[in-house]
Fold each of these.
Amino acid sequence: MSETVVLASSLRKIYQIGEAEVEALNNIDLEVQKNEFVVIIGPSGAGKTTLLNIIGGIDKPTSGKIVVLGHDLSVNDEDFLADFRCNNVGFVFQSYNLVSTLSVAENLAFPMEWTRKPEDYIKNCVEKLLKTVDMEDRADHFPFQLSGGEQQRVAFARALANDPLLLLVDEPTGNLDAKTSLKIVSMFERLKDNGKTVIAATHDEQIIQLADKKLFLKGGKLVDLVE
């Protein structure tokens, strides 16, 4: 019996820029099941990041409905959304979004501290996460001391800190060299093998090939990609 994790209905997002209106998303319908690996493909500016942000409760739609894990995110307040994100959704941003004043280990611990996990649990989990992304020797380093690929691996580990039910990933290999991209792809392979529900916006052909469902977003409209 499948379980719907994400259900978007007639989703629209309009940004007001001066006197002009820019339609980022136009009448989006989307359904993602538990354990599904979904990729969203499309040109720059097509609305991929906007869609991920709405699914994750970072942004709200102008109209339409977005239900994630049984919660209608379009009607809940910011306090609810902050707790919901921390407990249920892992984000990997294209710009990494690591906290510059925290070490690698502290960045990984932060989501668990927010959800008031016990200190011993956090310590053990940080060690496991560091090992997962092969960053044990960088635990005390700060983001500015890391390469782009290393920051991306830390961002992945932080996204997994609270074992989220849903992982949202925005162009994970867009700024990386080929060798580092392969490491990120191998992490996706492990996530898929472990049955994690993943929605990724990407141009990376190796990640696209892992997908159960491929969607194309252009001009704010979403369509199934038939190969």
Amino acid sequence: MNISILYATYSNSTYTAAEVLKEALEEAGHEISVNLVHAATAQNLADADLTIFASPSWDFDGKEGQPHEDFFHFFAKLAENPPAPFSYTVLGLGDSNYTYFCGAVDEILSMATAAGGKQTHDVLKLDQYYLNEATCVAAIKAWALEVTKSTA
């Protein structure tokens, strides 16, 4: 299966999580591409059997629990040039001490569905990646196996 991971990051934790996910999915025999979402196009979605959007949750535009701002720009581009239907899921990084734990996940789910996407796998929400790195890495690897099982 060809899987595209499109991510954005502020402090590199989402990049690190995307790389862990890439390795786990490659070990399961999948072809993986990892790209920053700001450089992605509708073609990235068309070329993939599954797209995994990965984002931290952050304050943006005066609102807490938002995805990285590059996701808003990406989905705005898609609105101008709608993609063919695509399959996706979401990996979210957050902090459970905030009001909207991994709020970016809900925002991305909404934007991706509005763009013609179909959520095909459960999302993964990670709490305080750098403070709980071993736990988060284990969760990513387990999630990758679930994604692999449900695509077989």
Amino acid sequence: MKKRTFIIAQIFILAIWLTLLLSFALQETDSFQDAVAVNEALQSVRADWDRLESHENRTDLSYVVLDTEGNVLYRTGAGLSESVNRAIVHRDTILDIEKEGVVAGRLIVFNDSSGILESRKRTVTLAMAGSALVQWALCVWYLFYLRRVIIRPFRKLKDFARRVAGGNLDVPLAMDRENLFGAFTESFDIMRDELKKARMAEAKANAEKKELVAKLSHDIRTPVASIKAAAEVGAALASERKTRENYGQIIRKADQIDALVSNLFTATLEELEQLTVASVDMESSELAAMLESADYFSYAAVPPIPECLLHADRLRLQQVFDNIFANSYKYGGGAPQGTGTFPENRKIDVTLRRENGYLAVCIEDCGGGVKEEELPFLKEKFRRGSNTGNLEGAGLGLYISDYFMKEMGGELLVENGENGLRVTVAICLSK
């Protein structure tokens, strides 16, 4: 409504300006002379011709009366044209005074058009200045109006959005239905309230999830402890060396499962970044046991390991090797599930080299690799190659391994080798 009033006022002021300008431009200066008054002055002079000394000006005009010789017989005031030539130059009105059909003299009526014109100019100027002042006042008022109904509410919305983006969902947004943003204000506050409810629901779900994981972890550790105990009894009673080694492998895996399950008390699958990595100095000779533990089908021959001091987390490094060998068994042409038989022409190749402050452990399967365009995505969460077929998997093994290696200061490289997929674990050397 106020916007419409402001526009109507501006149009009205513009119409006043145009009217004043047109009236001033179209006004003819010749029309400034009052013909009736001129005629009245002529008749009064003619009536008083014989007694001009007692003549009285009955009009508002200024004039001079001359005889036929050009002598001044009467004047209404000083500064008037007192000759025909001057009257012509000044564009005064010159009328003949006839007496009994004979021209007895002339009446020179002073042309005051310049004064009238100046007066009109002043009037138009003052009127336009007044309307301009009114227009300026209207603009100032409308500026304050816009500031109050648009700019100020918009700034409030901006500050509110900044608070919401910063996580502050407790302070409501004051609603003002009188400004243009009234409906938006209410919608924004509804959004804040819904976000707060969603955050509370998420926090509750996370708490319940962690509680569930804690309960499951407790339930898992119980049978694992039983497996470990049974394996320890079996190792103690076994007479053959190979049997004792198998039981030892079971015991080590049980210990590893117990350590991993303990992590579930503080982290879930969606919160992998919360898994702690604590790197310590370790001998490179320990890698042999880790690789043999990860290669539980013994499909890879562990080459000689260069003697050096590594800086890594034993538990996390074992997880990395376990994930890589598990992928080789599953996707790299390994043994079919449940057979334990590995084709002779398909082995897992393991090589080690020391370079640039790292000990690089390269593990290559015989599965033919993946497409080149898929390599950059294999270390992303839930990403798998197109060659996986119907094999089950979550696409987290290489993602977790890459995270662990970065936390240990190392690196995980994935590339296609000669026979299949090659994964290089670059373990940082101790300084």
Amino acid sequence: MDNKKTSGKNFSRRQFLKASGAASAVLGSAGLGFFGYQAGKDPESYTGQENFEGANQTFNRKRFAKDQPTYRKTGPSSRPDARTEVIFYRRSTFRQQWKDESGIKSLEPLLQEFYKKHPEALELDLYNMKEIFPKQMADYHKYRKQFILSEAWSNAMGAVSPPRIDKPPEISDFPRSRRTGKPLEPVELKSPEKTSRLIKKISHELGSTLVGIAKLNPDWVYKYPMQGRGFKPDEPIEVPKHWKYAIVVGAPMSWDPLYANPNYGTSYDAYSRSCIIAFRVTSFIKQLGYAARPHYPGSSYDLMVPPILVDAGLGEQGRHSVVITPELGCNIRPSIITTNIPLKPDKPIDFGVQDFCKTCKICAENCPSGAITMGDKEEIRGYSRYRLNVEKCNNFWNSNLGNLGCRICIAVCPYTRKSNWLHKTALNVTVNDPTGIAEKVLTGMQKRFYPGPDPQKYYIPSLGGENASYRKPPWWLRTEDFIE
């Protein structure tokens, strides 16, 4: 995109006509703003959360609703005893207690009584323990290689808690056998390209909306660690050699509460999903014998996240310091997995964010604290980017009555829109317009059709505000409709 958005003087007649047509398309769409807003309310446009709104439940249940269930009560009812009638529980107890020399007498009285009433169950439980289980274990070791991926995927689904990280990465990151405690040998992989394709597919299966892969730049690793990450707190981090690649995963915040920030939105809905995705991907990689460490929200990181998203080709960092993606705008809460599994990194992208942010400034204009600069980029630790005043930003977190945080800059960003036809059209227009005209027109439309409150009104009344939100909350967060 070297020729993208020059000064507006050095482009061909063909480019001029193309730009004029793009600008005309933008202007023409202005009259359709209302319909675009309505389309944005369609659950199918809730990018990354389509299934959460029931969009795929197409069956008309109301048509078949009945006053009574279809099962019938035919006699006296009783409740099951989980100790004997839940087969997984019963057979586990049975295996622990059964002794051949004592037979049924080796079991606790409850099981003895059960098997006397159900001798056929005793026969089948013995057959399971003596015949099926030993053969299954023998064949497991013989044929396991064929099912390595399915087993790793299944086990990863159960990884909903953070892995234990209380030792240095050279110990905590590497997998060990659950039975022997010895290090697992890594499986032999065919190629980094195939492995990257596999990891991306698995990450999507494990819940991630976006996935990207980067070669880890050591500049993004913290010089000194946070607590609870296995490092010595007062010693600088020596970047582990096995932190070769960084896998980015993540999910969006719920769309309607997002637009009702700062009071009704929350980061924790996406934080929780992003964390669990990272735990699951980490588990999957470790079960293949490779090192993996999750870096996840809110404060379990050993590195800076935004530049890694940029390196992984997921988006560009905006004026507000948040990464903007083509699919979700800046509505994504990411996690990172550092690993040594051989991968093919993605390439960074340029879809026009840097030029757009130069002139847009909507996030800065709507920031209650003035933390987002209206000025140009600065050099920060050797890299050029916009400086965010984190102290001012955090001060506002304690200056509103809603959920902790703010997120207004994410809500007002023109890129943060649900995936409907109007958003897609606008995105394609700006990406393909070398003049910058479309950007100015779209920014003007944003301010005209989607104005926000005076930023001072976001504050609590004690600080001169009105507890305002950028948009009205969704119906299911309107306390006054449900609670007296």
